[in-house]
């Protein structure tokens, strides 16, 4: 769906004025973690604009940091991009360009625009100055071209230890833009790379590598998030000074953040590694694999991201908005069923012990085409514990002694007796049913106010339900850039509740990733990690009620 935004406006103009004759974009993840829904925004924008203007998009692994990267992440990222519904024209690896990048660095040295520096990381930082104070030249800044070429060559050959030397661009130590104060463009790292193995022991820095990658691939519009805005002049400098033929244009847009969660690979990785969540696909984190396992559909994620729009702002979007879109997406497709999360047994004392019957139930009242099913009913059933109160407040219309309610798709039942254990806990209710009140019979004799869901005790399948609450208690944590705030101090200890209940017997063939609406409880997904035929596990995707109102 085409949507106007400032990026499309720029591209359209570039095509109209002839500045560009085609559009090439790229989605450039670093394979150092799994993708999150923020990345989905970048994917949707990059693939979306290329598609609108008959262009193409590359999936490029920005793999210039061997210590943090791994094939596992490469595979997971590819899977997630496809799952979201996108397919790249070309698959690229930044590491395939290491030789070319090296040659461009040599070119900079030859032009007197780069030098080998022996200062260590701390010294470089101290020499850089601040926003209010200019930086200081490194004592190695004026090495001759010959010496620099010789040293850089020996860096490549592995003669020096990690951290003992770097290559820096020679720009301006007093520039008001700190990125121009002789940024480091190569570092030494004796480590094995997931793609190039041990061929290299020097690696280009992001700020140097990224513009070259874009230029090598003839990317026309390099779309990234606003934290790179300050780097744009350096990006252009690198393209220029390295004498790249192709001139990509960097355009920044605001990051997507969502309330009550975290949205950075670094933090997500910490949650995974410290065992605070159950892997990268834990349904509580906003990774695409987590959202998938929870039960989110790619369509709901795409709709949500489209609706959040493209701007320069970084504000957090209410998670209720994401939930809204998955409800919308599942409304007409998810079969309705009944499940009891916290069971309370009911014996229907006037229902014959050896009898049972099949009752008809519609599979989706909002979509008749989904047909009907038969659900068994007999003398013993389960209802929810909190659908009974011995001593109810006013306006409580569910079960209490002497009260009559409707069982969805079945009969009216009346509560006559409360059975308790030695400690006084309610363990069972004795009720009677009225055969005249059968659902669908047209009975109009009297009315009841409460309608409860239930399952037949004899035939029900035991099932586990996993109910989720936000992982982070601080609303704005995802968009909080302050380093002193430790997100681990704001983790919700009750983000996962596991309960054991029952589901209808006709759910026996449900497979992982099948989605249902459990009457009164919300939408659920069969878990891919723990669900088995003997013991199905259902993740709650979202409850039925929403406070979120979409303005359309
Ligand atoms: P993180 O900060 O979570 O580690 P990143 O920016 O380091 O993310 P990359 O793998 O470098 O992750 O990102 C690939 C692309 O996705 C980049 O162009 C980046 O700008 C974009 N991106 C990352 N996070 C978001 C977000 N929250 N919203 C929109 N785009 C994002
Ligand atoms: Mg990054």
TrEMBL record:
Annotated compartments: Cytoplasm
Catalytic reactions on record: tRNA(Gln) + L-glutamine + ATP = L-glutaminyl-tRNA(Gln) + AMP + diphosphate
InterPro entries for this protein: aa-tRNA-synth_I_CS, Gln-tRNA-synth, Gln/Glu-tRNA_Ligase, Gln_tRNA_ligase_bac, Glu/Gln-tRNA-synth, Glu/Gln-tRNA-synth_Ib_cat-dom, Glu/Gln-tRNA-synth_Ib_codon-bd, Rbsml_bL25/Gln-tRNA_synth_N
Pfam families documented for this protein: tRNA-synt_1c, tRNA-synt_1c_C, tRNA-synt_1c_C2
Residues annotated to bind L-glutamine: 62, 206
UniProt subunit comment: Monomer.
Protein's name in the database: Glutamine--tRNA ligase
Annotated organism of origin: Cytobacillus purgationiresistens
């Amino acid at each position: 769906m085409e949507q106007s935004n400032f990026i499309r406006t720029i591209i359209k103009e570039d095509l109209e004025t002839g500045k560009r004759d085609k559009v090439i974009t790229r989605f450039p993840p670093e394979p150092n973690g799994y993708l999150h829904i923020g990345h989905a925004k970048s994917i949707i924008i990059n693939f979306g604009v290329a598609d609108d203007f008959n262009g193409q998009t590359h999936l490029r692994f920005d793999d210039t940091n061997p210590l943090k990267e791994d094939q596992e992440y490469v595979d997971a990222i590819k899977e997630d991009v496809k799952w979201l519904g996108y397919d790249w024209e070309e698959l690229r690896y930044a590491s395939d360009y290491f030789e070319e990048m090296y040659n461009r660095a040599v070119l900079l040295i030859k032009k007197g625009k780069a030098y080998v520096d022996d200062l260590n990381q701390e010294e470089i930082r101290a020499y850089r100055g601040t926003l209010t104070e200019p930086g200081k030249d490194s004592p190695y800044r004026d090495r001759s071209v010959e010496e620099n070429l010789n040293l850089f060559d020996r860096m490549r050959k592995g003669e020096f230890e990690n951290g003992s030397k770097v290559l820096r661009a020679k720009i301006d130590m007093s520039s008001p833009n700190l990125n121009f104060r002789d940024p480091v463009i190569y570092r030494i790292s004796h480590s094995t790379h997931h793609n190039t193995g041990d061929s290299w022991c020097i690696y280009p820095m992001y700020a140097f590598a990224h513009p070259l990658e874009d230029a090598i691939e003839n990317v026309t519009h390099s779309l990234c998030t606003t934290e790179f805005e300050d780097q744009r002049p350096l990006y252009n400098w690198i393209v220029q000074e390295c004498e790249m033929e192709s001139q990509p244009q960097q355009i920044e847009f605001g990051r997507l953040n969502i309330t009550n969660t975290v949205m950075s690979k670094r933090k997500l990785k910490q949650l995974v590694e410290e065992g605070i969540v159950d892997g990268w696909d834990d349904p509580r984190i906003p990774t695409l694999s987590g959202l998938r396992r929870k039960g989110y559909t790619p369509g709901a994620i795409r709709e949500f991201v489209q609706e959040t729009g493209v701007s320069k702002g970084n504000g957090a979007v209410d998670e209720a908005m994401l939930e809204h879109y998955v409800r919308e997406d599942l409304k007409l497709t998810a079969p309705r069923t009944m499940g009891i999360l916290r069971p309370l047994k009911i014996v229907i004392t006037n229902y014959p012990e050896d009898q049972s019957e099949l009752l008809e139930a519609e599979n989706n009242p909002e979509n008749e085409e989904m047909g009907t099913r038969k659900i068994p009913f007999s003398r013993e059933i389960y209802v929810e514990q909190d659908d009974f109160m011995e001593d109810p407040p006013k306006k409580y219309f569910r079960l209490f002694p002497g009260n009559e309610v409707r069982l969805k798709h079945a009969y009216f039942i009346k509560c006559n007796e409360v059975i308790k254990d030695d400690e006084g806990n309610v363990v069972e209710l004795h009720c009677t049913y009225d055969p005249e009140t059968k659902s669908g019979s047209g009975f109009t004799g009297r009315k009841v106010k409460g309608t409860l869901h239930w399952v037949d005790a004899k035939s029900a399948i035991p099932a586990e339900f996993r109910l989720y609450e936000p992982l982070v208690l601080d609303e704005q944590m995802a968009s909080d850039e302050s380093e002193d705030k430790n997100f681990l101090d704001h983790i919700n200890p009750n983000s996962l509740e596991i309960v054991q209940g029952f589901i209808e017997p006709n759910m026996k063939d449900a497979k992982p990733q099948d989605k249902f609406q459990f009457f009164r409880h919300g939408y659920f997904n069969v878990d891919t990690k723990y669900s088995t035929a003997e013991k199905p596990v259902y993740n709650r995707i979202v409850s039925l009620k929403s406070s979120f109102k979409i303005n359309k």
